[in-house]
Amino acid sequence: MAAFVALVGAVGWAASLVLGYGLAGLVVAVVLAGAGSVVAWWKSDAIALRVSRARPAGEVDCARLHNLVEGLCIAGGLPKPRLYVVDDDAPNAFATGRDPRHAAVAVTTGLLDKLNRVELEGVLAHELSHVKNYDTLVSTLAVTLLGALTLLSDVSLRLLWWGGPGHRDHRRGRAGPAAILGVVGMVLLLVAPLIGRMMQLAVSRRRELLADVSGVSLTRYPPGLIAALEKLRDEPTVVRSASRATAHLWIESPLARTAAEGQGARLNRLFDTHPPLEERISALREL
Question: Could you tell me the pTM of the whole model?
Answer without folding.
Answer: 0.76
